[in-house]
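Complex record, two chains
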Amino acid sequence: MTRGDFFKFAGAGAGVLLTSELGFDVAKATEIKKQLRIAGATEAHSVCPYCAVGCSMIAYTRQNADGTVNILQIEGDPDSPINEGRLCPKGATAMQLAVSSRRVESPLYRAPGATEWQKISWDDMLDKIARRVKDSRDRTFVQVDKKGNLVNRTDGISFAGGAAFSSEEGYFAAKVMRGLGLTHLEQQARV
Amino acid sequence: MVSLAATFGRGAMTNHWRDIKNADVIFIAGANPAEAHPVGFQWFMRAKLDPARGPGKGGGAKIIHVDPRFSRTSAVADQYVRIRTGTDVAMFGGLMNYVLQNNKFHDEYVRNYTNATFIVNEKYGFSDGLFNGYDPKKRSYEATAWNYDLGADGFAQRDISMQHPRCVFQLMKAHYARYTPAMVETITGIPQADFLKIAEVVGEMGRPDKVMTIVYAVGLTQHTTGVQLIRSGALLQLLLGNMGRPGGGMNAERGHANIQGNTDHAISWEILPGYLKVPLPGQKNIDDYLKASASKKLDPNSWNFFGTNYKKFLVSLLKAWYGDTATKDNDFAFSYLPKPDGNSSWITIWDQAIQGKMEGVFLSGMTATSIGPDTNQVLQGLSNLKWLVVMDPFPTTTSEFWHTAVDMDPAKIQTEVFMVPTTHWIEKSGSFTNSGRWSQWKDQVIPPEGEARHDHWITAEIFQRVKSLYQKEGGKFPDPVMHLTMDYKDPRKPDFDELAREINGKDLKTGKQMVTFAKLADDGSTSSGDWIYVGSYTPKGNMMKRRMGISDPAKNDPTGMGFYPQWSWSWPLNRRIIYNRASADTNGNPWDPKRPGIKWNGTKWVGDVPDYPPAMSPHDPKAWLPFIMNGEGTGRLFSNTCVDGPLPEHYEPMESPVQNALHPSVQNDPVVYLYDQKAGRPDRFGTSADFPIIATTYRLTEHEHYLTQQVPLLVALQPEPFVEMPPGLAQEKGIKNGDLVTVKSKRGQMVVRALVTNRVGQLTLGGTKAWQVGIPIHWGTVGIQADKNPDRAKYWLANALTPFVGDANSRTPEFKSFLVAIDKA
């Protein structure tokens, strides 16, 4: 049953049972919502980005006439066996994380000894980083260690990340970085 | 998760959030779930309010909270006790001693499902704080002294009566006899009377019809003895027969949305995806690797599932990564896997940077300056790099370190810094695996902001450009770079769906998605990026997208145990409680018929997805033992896989105001790795003469690490950093609530407000009285509040105080137990 079906089901007269299960009257709440800002909105499923309880979220968006998309609301998914619709102060303010004027809008570069950031194009930045990676890899690559073991590793580059990666991104990072020979791989689990 | 792997064969929360409702006692140590996981905490409260739960005749589950700070978790606990930070081994040791001395353990479970009956080699010994096999020069143990006595058949000798003086049960009994209630009080500060009250309730949980869960978090992990702190809880749970059962388990609360998923997929130096060990120098081929990595069958009734199938999992992984290049003739390109020069974890990265050996660092959603111990040393490491790539949606204390940190003169710092704007979670799809191992798919809800790109599109682009450079210029061993599989529609923009399918893996002959890891092969005919995720994306589609929830419990939770098997997908094979064979007795009947995990119905196991062959009769004399990941087939009370001993022992934190009461000559964990000393840098540990106050760091509900400093509503709720101190200490120092104070350690200082509360307090440790304070971690040199106070923000990094040292096994930094001095600013 999708959540849409769930509301239909609730609307069809099982609301009494659901009221006691969920602590609020889903059918009535849905009626009220239809008149609010989420009227006609598109529903999408998300998961809270914070503490690993994994609270399920429903995000409402609306496409504007010019094709841009606005996010209208994020709320807990009442059908989830994990959070049953609830969110904590962090989850409840997820909108302010999703849409923020404090984001870094474009790539920035800080040269050695510089006192300011300078704007840089994606292409320039990616070329520069790729060059640094290759040079550091070539300089610090150990094919055979002092004991004569074949080790094929890059000692001079580290990668750390992953707290709010999707799993698939994390997997890809581990694959690419090991592919480049990195052994210094780390993430939030340890810190 | 080294601790759980040493005990059960792999590391992860064994149960799941909703399952906590099934417990009779919820034992919380080193965690504050009411504030750190407020929504997950509803399951604790529901257990408490359920009259069918609880010790004795029920009346609601009892919550026991053992923590340095009285928090909102303590406020609803049936019993709260204040403990000195980092001393939980003594507390759990005391509980084990109580359970063993008073015969409160679950006899049938201990005898059959743990290695209590295994006989340890006579070379094993323990005296005056040291286990046998210690080399003081190397500061390490030779763990072969901790092996079992093996018979001629290669299996370990056992004594099912548990009377043999060298059986694990007797060794354990002797080891923990020293942890008397008086000793517990001296070490931990928990008054004997309070300790005995807890022990009495915990002791009841050894009955087959009762079950306790242990919940913990970084309050246990982030210590020099973190692995043993957790292992001691796991041992208690094995003695009580609470592992594998609904309402039981060792339940680690992960602190970030997808730490579990990213650990499973091995963004971690020591493992490959699916908890396969990273190959080490000297392992010339897969056979060498398997000999060192795969567990050996130690009992005729052990399935040794992991050890037996290890090669299939590794070869399938190599096929996923190196495709057609990985063939039987080249040992499936095993030589492409980099072999690390010893520990390469977090502190090592910065130690190498300080030593000038690290040239470049990628930080993707991580801010080194705030997050690591000893900020000032990390800043030195950052300044020594040639280049630094910060991939993040917001500026971080690391991207800005060269002009915002204390005493940083940009003109003198030669590090090139790239600030790479990345997308938020809601601007991309993909899955998050929560701390209960439930992997949930999320949608891309909105398009990326500004020029932001997905992290993996950035790494894919960089990889393609590096590859082109090798094609044009040649260079050091380009083969693994050239042959890494990039079988995506656009190798520069791998799709989340494509990656999810690769992780699950496929049969390379038919091209069909795999359904179970049981069908993975070691001949190169299957691929799988991560064997524990086989089944997450089958020919039927993406199982992580399923959302059959609570609107129809009859259909969606048929056992009524809260498993909800069709909401998302849980590794392995959609199993909700791991090691669940142990939830039933030797005949296959649940220990408590009201709380079945799985049960034998005469022809098969029913309930949760069995962690066991579905049709293996418990009456078959050859039936496998329940802990299928271990060579023993049992949970390991005694384990030779930790570097600091086979049984947890109490050692003092590196900075402590007291002598080790058990063995004054061995104060700290004898094998802890001393980075500064090893690198020839001056020692950075303080003593109680200069820094008399015990400090611990912690989190607040309204913030998560450093990210939420960018969220206006949350900053409004908790605007300013502070140190939480007890009224008695404040009075001694002439400090009033709200005063600015300087908090100093041997490493650095912070200048913040004093919050004077009774939530922290004084401890009596033998003859010594000591104050204990708490320091929340969330502030730093960037963020909404830092913008308003740029000068003071330089003194808002809590980790300026913490020591550059970590757990002896995992090297998880010591964030939780150190010494400070506090004075009015």
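Note: The first strand of chain A starts at residue 42 and ends at 47.
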